[in-house]
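Q: Predict the assembly, please.
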Amino acid sequence: MRLLVIEDEPALRRVIAQALREESYAVDEAGDGEDGLYKAKSWDYDAIVLDLMLPGMSGWLVLEKLRATKKTPVLILTARDALSDRIRGLDDGADDYLVKPFDLPELFARLRALIRRAAGQASPTIKVGEVEIDTLSRTVWRLGESIALTAREYALVELLAFNQGRLVTRTQIYEHIFDENDDSLSNLVEVHVSNIRKKLGKDFITTRRGLGYTLE
Amino acid sequence: MIKSIRGRLQAWYALVLLTVVGTFAGVLFVQVRQARFQDIDRQLQAGVMYLDVNLRRFPVSELDPSRTDPGPPLRDKNDGPPPRDKHFDKGPKNGPPLDKRDGFDKGGPDRKRPDDKDWHPGPPPPPKGKSREQLLAELVLPKEIAAPDDDEIASADARHYFAVWRADGTLLKASHPPPEGSFSERGLAAFSDRPRLADHGDQREAVMIGPEGSRILVGRPIARELAEVNAYAWQVAGAGVIVLGIGLLGGWLISGRIVRPIAMISATASAISANNLSGRIDTENVDSELAKLAAVLNDMFERLQSEFERQARFTADASHELRTPLAVIHSHAQLALSRARTAEEYRATIENCLLASTRMVSLVDGLMTLARADADKLQLSRKPVELGQLIADNIAMLEPVAETKKVTITADLAPVTIQGDGQRLAQVITNLLTNAIRYNRTTGQVFVKLRAEDKDAVIEVSDTGCGIPDENQEQIFERFFRVDKARNRQSGGHGLGLAICKSIIAAHGGTVGFKSRWNEGTTFWVRLPCN
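A: Predicted assembly structure:
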């Protein structure tokens, strides 16, 4: 899953990004409103963490302009704790509101919930045939047996599972499991898919030639 | 005491109205009553005078209605009108003639008379050759008085009566029916030698001292007149009450009209609270006297609102500035503890936490300084401070910072000593110099000048930076205001520096200002009194 963090305080932006990466997210960073809006419009992020008090373009404006074209889930992360701000934030199109200082586990949980809901999944556990994916503990089970996956492999499985039954294009895969700093090679996806098939069964992922992949 | 303006207005108005209506009604009533009783009184007086004059025709002491022996005949006879005996119960019709010698000459007809103008029944002719009984019989009220018009003869309530007593209190003669009550009941004091009017119950009476201490009384019932006057009084009172009622109602409505704008103003004012300061009094619909008040209040609301907004902005800013480093520390610590880390990673975390906490310390210090300055408790320890040295020390301290940006600092410092708090003043200088370096272009220049001018020390710090945009020039001393938030954040400022400078300078009794040109640079000047 790929996230965007728009936060002007560099120290905070770095720590959030690092924490999210350790949670196996692909994370892009933006230090001001303009950059943030540009990135948010250019890619299909799974969720955006947005600060409100940004230099130049404020978080409010970023949200307003983003909502004109995109439905990306937005979590506002701000020091503004007034009730009126929280109401305004949610009414203006944000999906969640978290006040600084915050707890990292809470931020993770809220982001997981946002991503899950955006994918139309109510439960944190997704079942695909004989494979079970627990998005909370980020583990995959097959016939009651825990399967060890790498972070990238897991991210790919999760992406496909969230879009179960739908075609996931290669571009989508690149957009969602790699961040802007990844030097991704086109065949890397093939490698991951082949590794996943080895671990979870040959028929787990169906290839649509020239289009992408899908979980039946 | 009535506290409401409307109530007090109404009370005063009611008082005035009551006085006016009461006085008017009272005067009217007295006038009408006087007019009503004037004729009655005149007739009563005339009756008394008539009887008085008649009494003078014979010695009163010799007239005794109970005496049977006829007195000596009178010398002169009179052809006066026969007595109207229907009013008489005493005395035979043809009594012996009354001797004129006793008394008549004593108080002759030239004795004092009442006001003659009103006195229409003329003096009777001198009794000549009449008996005492005749005279006594003739002692009656004249027809004009007894029954001035025939209608009233019939009505008993208009009938006159009279009585004459001798000095010893015995009744000499009385009408039929006689007056109610005795002579003594009325009291001697009631009588004087001039006709005096008095009310006796439902009767009006005129009394007078006649010849030889006799007492004359003429009266008539005035129940009808009293009833008329009373009815009239009730009418006047009723009309007065109605007028008063209408007046008070009108007054209440008018005072309501006057008070309504005040109520409106107070309603608007009370609707304005800390949460909703946007309301304003509508000055269009208010009278000019109140419009001024409304304008003053509106002005106050305006200032309150802007002050509240400024305060709210300050609180939000302060909260943001404090929460951000707090969030950094919190997140770093949580992240570091989430799994086992290398010593290197822990070290980086601690460094980040330290940086954030340093920023918080400086922010809290700044906020404390401002809070103290706001409360006038900056506690300056004033000592002689050589500003030239102070500035030179500061420049030396900041040279390394300037060098990283390749900024050169040029100083032109005259020795000026002022009374002030060296530490606080150093804070000001550091701040101005730091700004001049921070907002300078690379390889730019900073000029620092110090001179004495009119007992003031004037410091000027100029830079060759980008300048302050015109639209931001007013806000530059505001707390947490930053022209470019991003750049400032990265360079470590918290947006309180100039606000603190201004407070410290103000506490020293000085002033601070700046001139700025976009893309050319900014010059801050500080003027401090030397003592």
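The first strand of chain A starts at residue 2 and ends at 6. Chain A has a mean pLDDT of 88.
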